[in-house]
Design brief:
By secondary structure, the protein is mainly α. It is 40% helix and 8% strand. Helix 4 runs parallel beside helix 7 and helix 7 packs antiparallel against helix 8. It is elongated and about 70 Å long.
Length: 260
């Protein structure tokens, strides 16, 4: 969250005024929610329970006062979470449930990057060469440039004009084969770009492994790192655009990423 607090463009994504209109209140009222309450996306499990668990997250959030949902908030005493427990000044996002259910999303998913490196042809030495190159170039998939904080609640996403991380029980426009656990369709769109980057990297690594060229790992890794950072930046732009055009929609609804 440090980057989101210190960078205006990121900070502005979250520091928005939320005012429940009459139309919104009427829509919530039809679902059985009293005025001033925002429904969350907590869902029923197949075993008859709820997720997140009842002691961790509730069915509704209080309409936030100015600063209650800010990345460096709450700004005023008395802000509470979905369970009515006081959050405390400037403690938002210290847990995944403050001030609302949230997830840190890797724009280049960690599992996708790892599985694509694992799947390179030939032998394990080639995959290890690629990993060594990324380490040499100081590439970190967990760096803030590759991470964005997203709400899990559909209604929070609508109010903040952000997409939500997973589909959950609120569905999506796209087919989602793992709505509660992954964003497979999103991963596939990233793979189309990632494949090109790793293909170039793999060609050089193959030549190094075969002894055809000297191991200029530093130059090789710098090229791949720059391409990966560009991919993260393009994902960020596309995610923000999805939030503006279809607020509250899940990441799987993201259109195909542009070619570089």
């Amino acid at each position: 969250m440090k980057h989101s607090r210190e960078t205006k463009a990121r900070r502005d994504l979250y520091n928005r005024s939320v005012i429940l209109s009459r139309r919104t209140l009427a829509r919530y009222g039809k679902k059985g929610f009293a005025a001033g309450l925002i429904p969350t996306s907590r869902y029923r499990t197949k075993k008859g329970g709820v997720f997140p668990q009842a002691e961790r997250y509730g069915d509704s959030l209080k309409e936030p006062r100015p600063g209650d949902w800010d990345v460096d908030g709450p700004k005023l005493p008395g802000a509470v979470d979905s369970m009515g427990r006081e959050i405390g000044l400037h403690r938002n996002f210290e847990t995944m449930y403050w001030p609302y259910w949230n997830n840190a999303h890797h724009m280049i998913p960690k599992g996708t990057l790892n599985s694509m490196i694992e799947s390179v042809p030939d032998d394990a030495r080639l995959a290890n060469l690629i990993r060594a190159g990324l380490l040499k170039g100081l590439y970190n998939v967990n760096h803030y440039e590759n991470v964005i904080l997203l709400p899990m609640d559909k209604e929070v996403g609508i109010h903040l004009q952000l997409p939500r991380h997973l589909s959950l029980d609120d569905e999506s426009d796209a087919f989602d084969e793992a709505p509660k656990f992954n964003h497979v369709a999103y991963n596939a769109k990233v793979e189309t770009r990632l494949d090109t980057i790793l293909q170039r990297f793999m060609e050089i690594a193959s030549e190094v492994k075969a002894g055809e060229v000297p191991c200029e790992m530093k130059e090789m890794s710098a090229l791949a790192k720059a391409d990966l950072i560009t991919l993260s930046q393009d994902c960020y732009v596309a995610i923000v655009a999805l939030g503006k055009s279809k607020p509250g929609k899940p990441l799987v609804d993201l259109p195909s990423l542009p070619r570089p």
